[in-house]
Request: fold
Amino acid sequence: MAKTEKKKQGICYLAGAGPGDIGLVTLKVKQVVEQADVIVYDALCNTEILQWAPKGAEIIYAGKRSNQHALKQEETNALLVEKTREGKCVVRLKGGDPFLFGRGGEEAEELAKAKLHFEIIPGVTSAIAAPAYAGIPVTHREHTAQLTIFTGHEDPTKPESKLDYAQIAANPGTKIMLMGVERLGIIAGELIKHGARADLPVALVRWGTTGRQQTLVGRLDDIAAKVEAAGFKAPAVCVIGDVVKLRGKLSWFEGRPLSGKRIVVTRTRKQAGALTSRLRALGADVIELPTIRIEPPTDVREFGESVAHAHTYDWLVFTSPNGVDAFFEMFYRIFKDAREIGGVRIAAIGPATAAKVREYRLAVDLQPEEYVAESVVAAFKNDGSIENLKMLIARAETARDVLPQELTKLGAIVDVVAAYRTVPETDDMSGGQARFREEGADLVTFTSSSTAENFMALKLPLPVGLKTASIGPVTSKTMRELGLAVDIEAKQYDIQGLVSAISKFFKAS
Reply:
């Protein structure tokens, strides 16, 4: 009798997604997301985490905001049990830490009741992280050695409230309230009524640890009025205590060069990180709105044959990091030994492309000072005669013909092969398009002609006063042809040059 295949055992990871800054997500969370079959995430999770999900993973939004629920808690519990019971690897992403007012305990109980395997992955809680990013240490030897964390998500006027305001007010040290902006007036009144000092310093930190962070400071007896006057909305962490006074000396996050600027990055999801991280390091609120993605070329066989014969060429020319990655991915599918590339010399159009070549432990023999095709031609001229030299240009499927035409005029024997193609990105997994429609932006960046073309093809409403930034003259030309003004153009045609130009623009404005 044939043995029946043993059913795969499922597992559910109840994982803390951190307070918002993707840099504060733990390595363990990244590891389990990369192997997930199903991901169930909440409203306050940074959706950029989803870019780590494997292709084909089922992504389910179970977010909860005040009076708005994508799924009721009971439905979420049942969903986790169902998917885990099917033998799948389920990752339940919860903002902050899953066990700190995240109802992770309830979800764990349901999984345990169903006798299913689960693990808890703690996360960085906004209760600590948001004050830290606002320059407020929740404990300090000269101010307090005690910390109280409570939820404001209850109505304190109801007799069944589980919060003991007398005890909270009497506790010395810092008090942190989560999820209570809408009830702040009532809660502050209850604390004062039960003995808390009316002049206790209070800080509200909205969207803490992200580029959207805002901080409002007041006293326990006037903070509610300040919230109303400023139109200050959730989500926010409330810090109550004398440690708030330290913000004046320790504030570090909100005063950076691009703080308060909302900037759109239109690069591919895979490539956005380099630009995003540099802009965020300067304080920008970055919306990743990928307009293109990289796909294999239409004729994969032709590309493979060209790669297989790369050793027969005198020069191998790369015009982008994407071309380098595509070439060597194919190369190592065909060959097991790097020496099979032979004695071919390598030219790269710019520092990013050259750096990508070096990642494959190969040297770059020619790199022009400027990062456009015309400069590659000029660099070859200065290098000496290229008459009768065989050259293979690995590039995008649709690209300008300046480089092969000009090299041919110089006497080279040029073959062009499509290493990849760019196609419009239709998936808005990270919610970038929705955020742009709802909130607008101060600036949108373009790193290639295709990003500009596909951004305009989305037909998104452009907010009044929106500025644009281009990585170089070729992209700028395309932008103008599309009817876009070019407010910023990088002088150095790479990511660092683009970031530098953006910084100078906003500094001068």
About this structure: The radius of gyration is 28 Å. The first helix runs from residue 27 to 34.
